[in-house]
Design brief:
20 strands; 6-stranded antiparallel β-sheet; single chain; 12-stranded mixed β-sheet; alpha+beta; 6 helices; 18% helix; globular
Length: 368
């Protein structure tokens, strides 16, 4: 075990030669790498410093502590990610037109038909290739995006050996001071563009608050057998649900209308048919999400935020509690006259969410 355990460390200790690929070319290869198969083992480490909030415990745990990830990827529509944390294992299978989750500890199989129009972050989002491409797309560097759509700065990083591969690096530096992200560092295989390590550092900090990297990776396609979910058997719990029904996945949501603009930020995109519960505002690294909650969930969130030394806020038409961690800011609030509660979260500074709370407290949904 001692010899085997030292192999990755010895491989990564070898000198790394500089590559001739520039940051813009590397970005383009990363964004085009979604079609490339791979399989590997990665570890994500986060230190967001947020308390557990109602219905969001699984999300908060992803940003605090270590998460082990085993992934097999054949393409965007066919992959498998096993998430191992705290002695529990949850496997997610992406198949054409459906997803299957397997809770190993709970012996529960769940099949979701279709693509969920709204969902919470999950362990599979921390796999280095997926996280890297999402962050680059947020920065407006997706080749499909309009030219000049982002002012975020792109620069080269020294090469780094990751999982035994000499990886080329790039850094994205957000220009908007309202973002809590100071920099996003990505290292990828220069030949295929497959991201191997991602490190997100908050503004003003010197060490990453979130880092995910491969310890082992291979570029061969996984077999069909490893991508096939377990077959239901006696004694196993098995359920099936439609992806258009988000009530079970976002039990905290209280459906209702939301403003078209908040804190000067326009509501992003269009709301999926039949879903008016949650909304995303803004663009790039200053996006934030607003979720109307039931009164019980909203008040419980405020209580927990207060216990976690959150800042109490008083609005002209309500009150709230603001938690500003190193990377993520969360506002739990109560709009008194409208008798509505909200959770607001984003990679933005607390002042932006304070303004959002002021405007939400005055928002009166039109009666129908």
């Amino acid at each position: 075990m001692l010899v085997v355990g030292g192999v990755p460390a010895l491989a990564n200790a070898r000198p790394v030669r500089s590559t001739s690929i520039g940051p813009a070319q590397l970005r383009d290869r990363i964004m085009a790498s979604a079609v490339r198969p791979y399989q590997g083992y990665a570890v994500s480490t986060g230190s967001a410093g947020l308390p557990t909030l109602p219905q969001l415990g699984d999300v908060i745990r992803l940003l605090d502590g270590d998460t082990q990830l085993r992934v097999w990827y054949a393409g965007p529509g066919r992959w498998r990610t096993d998430v191992i944390e705290g002695g529990a294992e949850r496997d997610l299978y992406q198949l054409p037109g459906r997803q299957v989750s397997w809770d190993f500890s709970g012996n529960q199989l769940t099949e979701v038909l279709g693509t969920p129009p709204v969902r919470l972050p999950r362990g599979a989002d921390l796999v280095p290739p997926d996280l890297a491409r999402r962050l680059l797309a947020m920065a407006g560097h997706d080749p499909a995006a309009a030219s000049g759509s982002s002012a975020d700065r792109l620069s080269a990083l020294p090469p780094l050996r990751v999982a035994g591969i000499a990886a080329a690096g790039l850094r994205v530096t957000p220009r908007d001071p309202r973002s809590t992200i100071g920099q996003v560092d990505i290292w990828a295989d220069p030949r295929t563009g497959l991201p191997l390590q991602v490190a997100v550092t908050s503004r003003g900090a010197s060490t990453p608050v979130l880092r995910t990297r491969f310890l082992e990776v291979g570029f061969n396609a996984p077999t069909a057998a490893v991508l096939a979910p377990p077959v239901p058997r006696p004694g196993m719990g098995a359920t099936e649900t439609d992806a258009s029904d988000i009530t079970g996945g976002l039990a905290l949501v209280r459906p209702g209308p939301l403003p078209d603009r908040l804190a000067g930020q326009a509501r992003a995109g269009t709301t999926p048919v039949g879903i008016a519960a949650a909304a995303v505002y803004g663009t790039g690294f200053t996006q934030f999400v607003v979720v109307p909650t039931s009164r019980a969930v909203g008040l419980e969130a405020m209580r927990r935020a207060t216990q976690a030394a959150g800042t109490s806020l008083t609005f002209p038409n309500g009150d709230g509690v603001l938690l500003s961690a190193s990377l993520l800011s969360v506002l739990a609030m109560d709009s008194h006259p409208a008798r509505r509660n909200y959770l607001v979260a984003g990679l933005v500074d607390g002042e932006l969410l304070r303004q959002v709370g002021m405007e939400l407290s005055a928002f009166r949904p039109a009666r129908r």
